[in-house]
Every structure is written in C-alpha cells, then in structure tokens.
C-alpha cells in the first residue's frame, strides 16, 4: 500500500505527457519482484524498496538514465559501458541499491558522488572476464554503504581502494582471486591494525566462487574481525583459515572445496559456532577430531559421503543445536546409544536423502529438545511408535518420500507438540479406521490420497488444521470428508483431484480459506464437474488463488465472484490437443479487490476493455508465454483505468493492424507502466521468411486511420455519438464543444513542447448556480485565503473570472486548460444543469483524450449513486478512488473532508513539490474504518 501511494506521488510528480514506457527499462515495486523473478536473478533487490528499475542494453549511460523514473531506490543496469564517468548518478540521490552489469573497466573518481543513501553496490560481469580499475577514493561519498559486491570482475591491479567505514558485507566472487592476501593490497583497510580497537569488522566476507582461489598466505587478513567467512566453490582447504591472522570468526562455510577432513583445529582456534562443510569428500569423521568441536552450535555435513557416524558423535558437541546430515549414505542413525546416555540440546536434525531402513527404538531417545526432524527421502517401510518416545517437543516431522506402509496406531499421541506433518509420497494405506487421533496440536498436514478402496470412502482428518496439502493419484474415486467443517483452515493445496466436495457448501467446509493452490487435473475436474464455465467455489475470504493446469483441461473456467481475492495466477491452462484462442473475460470475471493477475500459457489471445470492468483494483498484469496477443483498441479508451503495471514477457503481439494503436499509446500512456519485450517481430506475408520489427511494420502497413493522431478524431466522434442527449438540449453548441475539445487537445500538444508551462489558475471550480452558496461560503475562503487560514490558491470561478462576452464553451475550455486542477462540485441539481454537464464532460474528455490531462477532482454535496450519474460521461469509471469525496453533513467530519482536499491539491504548493504531501494525505484519507473511508470513497 505504502509503495503504491508513493508511486502515485511519483506519477503525479512526473510530467504527464511523458509516456512511462521506456524502451529498455522495467519498472516495478520491490514487493512485486517474485512476479518478475528472471529479471532479478543476477541483481537481487531488497523487497522493501518501493520502486525499482532494471534496464538492459545500456550503451549510453546518459541516455539510459534519462529513461529511468526519478525516485527509484533500486536500479540495475545491464549493457556495455567501459568507463563509469564522474557524477554518473547525481540525478538519483535516493538510490539505496545499485547493480552494474556493464563490462566496466574503469570507475573514475566521483562516479558515485551524491549517493549518500546507497546501501548496496554490486559490480557484475561474466566470471573473470573483465578487469576493473577503481579510483582509490571512489567509494568516498558512500557513507551509508553496507554491502559491496564484486561478482565476476577481476580486481587484481587495484591498489589501496578505500572502503567506507559503514561497510558490513564484502563479496569478491567469480573473480581471478588466487590468494586471499591479494585482498589486503586492494583494500588495505581490511588489515588496518593489530590492536582490537582499530580492527576492521565485517559481518560477512564472501569469497565464494573464486575457482582459482587456493592460497591463504599467512597473516593475509591480519587483525580482521569477521562474522562469516564464505569460501564455497573455491580450491581452499578449511584448515587454511587459521593462518589468515583473523582476530575473530564465528561462521565458516567451505562447501564444494577441496577440504578432506573436518577442520578441527580451525574450529578450536576460533571457537567457531557454525561450520558448513557440505559437498566435500570427507567420508568419515573420527571421534578424536570431534573432541575439539565443542563450541559448534550448527554443523552442516550434507553430502560428504558419510556411511556411519562415530559413537558418541552428539556427546562430543554439547552445544550443537542444528545438525544437517542430509544426502549421505547413512543406513542407521546411531545418534543416541542407549536410554541412559546424556541428553543433547539438538533442536533441528536433517536426515533427508539417506538410506535409513529401520530406526531402532532408541534412535532419538537422547533428543528431548528436538523440534524439527526431517526424514524425507529414505527407505523407511515401518516405524515403531517407540521411535518417537521422548520427542515431547517435536513440532515438524517430515516422513515424505519413504515407502512407508505402516505406522502403528496411536503413534501421534507420543508427539504432543507436533504441528507440521508431511506424509506426501509415501505408500501409506489410509484405511477408514486410520485416524489422526492424538494429534492435538497438528495444524499443518501434507498427505497423499491413495486410491480409495471403495467408492465414497470417508477420510477423517483433524479439523483444527490451518494448512492442508492433498495429493491424489490420478483416476481415483474421490474420497469423502467425514468431518464437515475445517473452521480455521487457511491454506489449501490440492494436487490432482481426490475429494468429493459439493460446490454449494464449500464455503461452509472451509469458511476461513485464504490461500488456495490447485495443481494438475484438479482444476479441470473442478470446472467440468459442475458442468459450468464459472469457478464454482464461493470463498468470501480467499486472498490468493494459484491454478497450475497440466494442459489437458479442455475448458478453463472463469474465475469470478471472489470478493477478497487479491492475487490470481493461472498457468498452463491451454488445452494442447485443441488449442483455441481465449479472451481475457473467459478467464476472469468480477474480482473487485484483485491487485495482481498473472497469466502464463493460458492460451490468452484477446484483451479488451470488457475484461477489465470487473477488475477495478488491478495494479499489476503479467502475461507470460502467451502468443499472438491482440490488444483490442477498446483498451485505448479504457487506458486511464488500466493497471498501473503491465508486463508482457516471453509473449508476442499478433502482427495485426488491431495492434497498431499500441506503440503510439505506449509512448505517451501517462498512467500505465508497460514493459513489452522490445524485439517484437512480424512475419510479413509478402516478404517470405524475412522478419521485420512489429511496430514499424504495423505503422507502415496499417491504414492511417488507425494512427494515434486520427484516433483523437475518432474519439471525438465517439464522444459526439454519446453526447446525443446533450445535443437535444444544446442544439448548435455541439459544434463549439467539438471545437473546444479540439483546441484543448491542440493546446495540450503544444504544451508538450513547452513543458514548463505556467498555469493561470490553480483550480478551476465547476459548479452550478444552485451550489454557489457552498462554493462562496465554504470552498472559497478555505482555498483562496492567505495561509495559514487558507491555502492561498488562485481559483477560477465562472461568474467571477470568465471573460465577458465570450462563448460559454470557449470560456470553459480555455480556463480549464489554464488551470492545474479541475474541481467539479456535484449535486442532483448540478447534474440537471446543462453547463455543469458540459464542464464535466469537457474535463472527463480531456482526462480521457488529451495528451496533457488535467487533474480532475469531484466533490459530491450529497450522496449520488453511480447509477444516477449520467451514463454518457462515464465518470464513475474514469475516476480513481481517492479522487472524489462526499461533503459531510456533520461538522466534526468536515475536517476530514478538508484534509482530503488539501492533500489532493498538494499543499503547500501544487504540482511537483506537492507530491510528498499529497502522498501522506491520501494515506490518511484511505485509512480503513468509518472516519475517512466512507466519507471520501463513495
Ligand atoms: C549519449 O547520449 C547523449 C544524449 O542522449 C549524447 O549527448 C551523448 O553524446 C551520447 N554519448 C555517446 C558517447 O554517444
Ligand atoms: C556469496 O556470494 C555468492 C555469489 O558469489 C552468493 O551466491 C551467495 O549467496 C553469497 N553468500 C552470502 C552468505 O552472502
Ligand atoms: C600485526 O602483528 C603481527 C604479529 O603479531 C605482525 O607481524 C604484523 O606486522 C602486525 N601488523 C601491523 C599492521 O601492525
Ligand atoms: C534438509 O536437507 C535437504 C536435502 O536433502 C534440503 O533440501 C533441506 O532444505 C534441508 N532442510 C533443512 C531445514 O536444512
Ligand atoms: C549407555 O551409554 C553410556 C555412554 O553414553 C555408557 O556409559 C553406558 O554404559 C551405556 N549403558 C548401557 C546400558 O549400555
Ligand atoms: C506446512 O508444511 C509445509 C511442508 O510440509 C511447509 O512448506 C509450510 O510452510 C508449512 N506451513 C506452516 C503454516 O507451517
């Protein structure tokens, strides 16, 4: 929400005539990163950043940065630029995270001047391909820098580069580093001193993925205090770290290195707390080496080829809390030798992917503190109840992917604290008598449904679940649920279809459901089961729905009628056998709260305005892997209401003239940020195999009438048609109306060339004579009086400021164009006044069509339902929430109204500078609850 509002502020502070769509940049909000994963793989960004941009094919920095909206806090540039000049980012003082994948060879002094808020800076390139030279004081201005990453570039040859004192993380990875000692020459700060006062401290020194790193010269990092040293994927031996001269080290990670034994000496030397030895060829561990490992709290021995554990393994590490033994060849887990052995403090044990066949009753008997036990992917066939004896605190148990067929009855009673149980991918025979009796705390269950022995077998599940995942083998007769209500179930995942659920009572069975994930056949069965093209589930609280088909669903159903749904993802719904073009309105219907719609390989072809009508809150639309898309030109009319972000990824636009309007629209659409894969190709029929770029082709080959300039003409025509009621009462004035509209449009066009245009007025107030009293007594003093009593704005009032003798239509159009904001005061009377309607119409038309749209605010003096608003001017769907407000009757609520108005007018001054204030104001006006919401959002 906050990000959204910030964006709104940003949007309004941008010159509106500039289109958002910038050829090579993708803009998004941090929280939306997961939707656009592939753009952030190399250059991950903080998800708390409100506004980020990723630009590709950057070859001229100045030019590329011009396209980046100011105010982004995260920026990632891909391209080829060899020299980073001075002052490169001075227009982006708010940057917090900056990633540069540019083949840089030189970074000049002052390149990062002004980036005082920068927290994270990354230089990225192909592994050890580019050499980069940094000016020694290049990071001098970065006084907030916490994280500095070099991923790829080689740094050898640099000398004496100063690090900012705020630095916590340093990564030099994928580079040519061969000796840890080189670091001290490049960054001498690291080895500044021997006394503990002036020693440099880093939380993480990450030297992973330096494939040639094999030397740790003695004293190479003399005096440095480190939290974590990461040497993964290097040719180092863990034991070598003792020579480095580090003053402190807590965590050492050396996975995928040439370490051949447990580095007992290093553990003892630093009193290490965490050691990650995964994926080294170690084979076995001798008890003697463990003797010096008593400081360890976390030990990762994943995939090191262990076949057995030494006796007394746990007893040697009394402080151990987390032990990962996954991916070894352990056939038995001799952790606890007998019941009398000393208890261990271990709380997490990962034995996944081993070769465990049987577990002796005493296996876990010395682990009374164990909370997490992962036995996934072993060979366990049966488990005796005694195995779990004593695991009083166990919360998570994963028995997935074991050929389990038997668990003794009542075994769950031994695990009173168990909350999460995974039984997926087991051969467990769930009989009707099998029950979860005793699982008092169980709230998260993953279960596989085997074929039901007889039709309609009843499945008894604990009813206090909050999360349930059910997988069904294909072609089973559905199970019936023996309990009817899961009152607190929030997360439900169904893979395949295995449950008999009547559609009518589904909201009774799962009244609290918030997240639903349907995988595979389940969706198809669901749709056709009820022989309906509509999603049959009525789930009033559902917030997110993900449907992942398997491309065998003959018919996608229309997801509709889910009042709380915020996020919807539909994937792989295309019916491979009989692909057919799908229209968006066949997939989604009435989803008033939907914010994110993600469609991937659904067979979607046509998008038209109709489909967006039920999606009033949509902010992000992602189309992925959809081919030959047609963006119907009804969208152009609808564009003020389009989602703020549209991403058309790995998808192609059809080479049809219907799409010809898209390019000009993209260039100047002020409200929607669209990212379309830039290389859209067109296979022209007459040119045989050669492919041409889509947009130039369309603009050359499609009839001129479809071009944007003439679109305005057609939009005027459209307006003309819908203004028939007006014609009846206004006779000849429609000609003037069109003239005025045209003139406003021309002015707008001219305005683009002259962007610093000054407005004659701040606010144009449109109202009818009957409402004049309110305007003069209430509005005028508040807006026009000098601060602090008023806002000191210049108002344009028809009876006061219109040029005498000039035609009304001309007066309205000229003054409206000369005002920064148009404020319409509406009442039932006003709606019946010709001039009011004309003004309203002009304002809305301009909003719809003008290249330089004004800000339109509407004040309702009395409640007016949407249906009472004249149909033709489509006011209801032109206005954004927060752009209209009801004048309250009660005095005590008037303050809220004024706060709203002040915030929308961006006090203390309008326009650019006011954005920040505006943002805060809207936030207030949007707080839920009685106080503001119902006043200011009709
Ligand atoms: C980069 O673009 C700017 C204007 O967009 C231009 O003035 C400058 O000469 C270009 N630089 C190079 C190296 O082409
Ligand atoms: C260390 O850097 C590598 C890339 O070189 C990265 O994948 C890894 O996540 C980093 N580890 C830490 C702990 O930051
Ligand atoms: C730090 O102390 C070591 C020996 O303890 C010495 O060899 C080294 O020169 C000293 N370094 C500095 C920078 O004082
Ligand atoms: C346990 O090990 C498996 C690998 O076999 C891994 O996927 C999983 O993430 C590990 N879990 C924990 C909690 O360490
Ligand atoms: C149990 O193990 C401890 C060592 O952990 C040993 O001293 C004791 O003799 C064992 N008791 C039995 C009954 O095996
Ligand atoms: C439920 O368990 C699954 C794994 O079995 C896990 O991924 C999920 O996060 C758990 N959910 C909760 C709410 O604990």
Provide an overview of this structure:
With 938 residues, this protein is of the alpha/beta class. Among the domains are: 176 residues, Alpha-Beta Horseshoe (Leucine-rich repeat, LRR (right-handed beta-alpha superhelix)), CATH 3.80.10; 188 residues, Toll/interleukin-1 receptor homology (TIR) domain (Rossmann fold), CATH 3.40.50.10140. The strands form 7 sheets. It has a 27-stranded mixed sheet. It has a 5-stranded parallel sheet with strand order 42-41-43-44-45, sandwiched between helices. Strand 37, helix 12 and strand 38 form a beta-alpha-beta unit. It is globular and about 105 Å long. The N terminus is likely disordered. The structure holds 2-acetamido-2-deoxy-beta-D-glucopyranose (6 copies). One 2-acetamido-2-deoxy-beta-D-glucopyranose (NAG) binds next to loops. One 2-acetamido-2-deoxy-beta-D-glucopyranose binds next to helix 3.
CATH architecture of the domain at 738-925: 3-Layer(aba) Sandwich
The share of residues in helices is 10-25%
Query: Count of DSSP helices?
Result: 25
Bound heterogens, unique: 2-acetamido-2-deoxy-beta-D-glucopyranose
Which shape, going by the Cα principal axes? Answer: globular
User: What's the CATH topology name of the domain at 738-925?
Assistant: Rossmann fold
> Roughly what is the average pLDDT, rounded to an integer?
80
Amount of beta strand: 15-25%
CATH class of the domain at 738-925, named Alpha Beta
